[in-house]
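Lab channel / #folding
Pinned by the channel admin:
"Please post every new chain as: sequence first, then the structure tokens as a reply. Keep commentary short and put observations after the output so the thread stays searchable."

First post following the new format, from NK:
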Amino acid sequence: MDWGMSNRLAQLIQPDGHCFFMPIDHGYFQGPTHNLERPGDTVNQLLPYFDALFVTRGVLRSSIDPAITKPIILRVSGGTSVIGKDLANEGITTSVEEAIRLNVAAVGLSIFVGTEYERESLLNVANLVNECEKYGIPVMAVTAVGKELEKREARYLALCCRIAAELGARVVKTYWCENFDKVTNGCPVPVVMAGGPKCETELEVFEFVHDGMQKGAIGVNLGRNVWQNEHPVAVARALQAVIHENATPREAFDVFKSFKDAGE
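Reply from TO:
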């Protein structure tokens, strides 16, 4: 691995081998998402707690202070919306030259295995890897399921993650599921967990993150369960404890309560 690639991955994955990525890219297909109407305000209060920001070029330019030192993972796929016919019909929206101009640490795009557009989305990954490897930019593949949430089971997600790794993705983002070790054991590159729809309780979030970390994930790429919570800073600090301090779910919940009680 050349120096540039190694350097960018080291920005994303911390010295303990773990990471906490904060996605705020939801607007690229679902518009002004609740609590993400003003993304710059959402991000500013959470800056001390996450390790990298997953964002589109439009929001990066318009809403994120260029003086921040947090590494950027740039969302480079899109072309569909939540009200359109099929979320899986994505294309590449942003060039590698643009990613270089924006000084990003990595780029990310979705794959839709098992859909009508499986081939197109997988070739998107392969072609993007071909270009990004020339410049030492890691590609993160996101195993998206569109509106078909029932696909979030170990056999399917293991298939998706392995294919993404085989095509050259340096990191894979996927959903937590029961028997999550079946997913990570079959994927030869680092796996980070997505949050998915907002959980019912904070403890539920800490439990699935902790379980996934114990079963081989290196961290999370988790947004809605943080910034849609009434106490986003408290949730972020508690997740930081699980990811980087090996806190149990109950210990993380105690961290959450202490920050919540302090009004954060």
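NK: The radius of gyration is 17 Å.
TO: also worth noting, The chain has one domain: 3-201.
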